[in-house]
Amino acid sequence: MELVPLGSAEEIAVVVADIVERAVRQRPAAVLGLATGSTPLPAYQELIRRHRAGTGPSWDEVTTFNLDEYVGLPAGHEQSYLATIRRELTDALGLDPARVHGPDPDEAGLPTAGERYEAAITAAGGVDLQILGIGTNGHLAFNEQGSSLASPTRIKTLTVQTRQDNARFFGSAREVPQHVLTQGIGTILRARHLVLIATGVGKADAVAAAVEGPVSASCPASVLQLHPHATVLVDGAAVGRLRRLDYYAEVYAAKPHWQAH
Q: Is the model's pLDDT at 75 over the cut of 90?
């Protein structure tokens, strides 16, 4: 795991955009795993800015898979994650909507939705680069505390804390769906490169537990410690509980110029 301490969300956005663009240039038919929510939004806006400026790569062959999807929202709801990622990123980059995927929350197909999503990811060749955020309680995607570290895509029940965290996207916490379909921790670990973004003081405890604590289902994001290529990008507010911050800063400052994230 590489922890990269940066000064602001804007600096992180530039680094994330560089990582994503490099992956697409190296493999034009790259498969990207995408997170929604406010944390990755600056990075997505930076990718769109570069695309509109004509400096970005071609997105014509790129395929994307969302991390998760709410269950129980009306069809076409603006807060569904498929609608959100199209609105906030993929439409602006010109991706064919048929290449933009999310778990299927249709009630009739829920018993097999996880298996079908796993099969679709496998058929696409697996995820090359997965963008991640981290919950205030250390959850990864919607794998709450106690989730199996080998779990596949499946339906999960959201905790009260997570529903409160997501209430800003709805009218109130009561309007946040109680259930989601989410990629499992085992699914996420199969991606070839994991990039986790954490910004704000509210994520400081979770970052410390994930990076410096034990690998445990009590902090699902701690599984990044087991991945062969995981990059954790944190701003100045999210590093406040790290005991080895000076070490991470020293290592990053001395990184060879030719060594990519």
A: no
